[in-house]
Amino acid sequence: MTTATETDRIERSILINASRERVWRALSDAEQFGVWFGADMAGQSFKPGQRARGRMTSEGMEHIFLDVVLDRIEPQDLLSFRWHPYPMDQTIDYTQEQPTLVTFTLKDAPGKGILLTVVETGFDSIPQHRRRKAFEMHSGGWEYQLKNVERYVTQ
Length: 155
Known about the structure:
CATH architecture: 2-Layer Sandwich
Shape: globular
Radius of gyration: 15 Å
CATH class: Alpha Beta
Number of strands: 7
Oligomer: single chain
Structural class: alpha+beta
Number of helices: 3
Helix content: 25-40%
């Protein structure tokens, strides 16, 4: 796994020994995305411009929703969405904040599978009082989630 960070951007990559089609389905099918991400996305779909929302399923996180608005879908190459990072306090209306942009890209790694990269940008627009915590949590969170998607597609 490779990592790169600055203050406004998190970038993480992982080499996955699976077909492009398999990795793409895990990203682009909302229900499969929910399985490895840890959210109940039953009945949801990913379509550009549409919102997809599901309750988190991890212990202690059930009060939080994965709530995304799909930005771009370029089949088997790129999927992006906007969301409000680290929405832990249910008393805050995060919709008043600028969302970050999450972009997944798939690239062939000759003879080695697929290089999956996730980039999240826009942290500098998050209110100062929660920017650092959101950045820290997502920095580690994307490492964890890339391992989850790898595990999901290779089982």
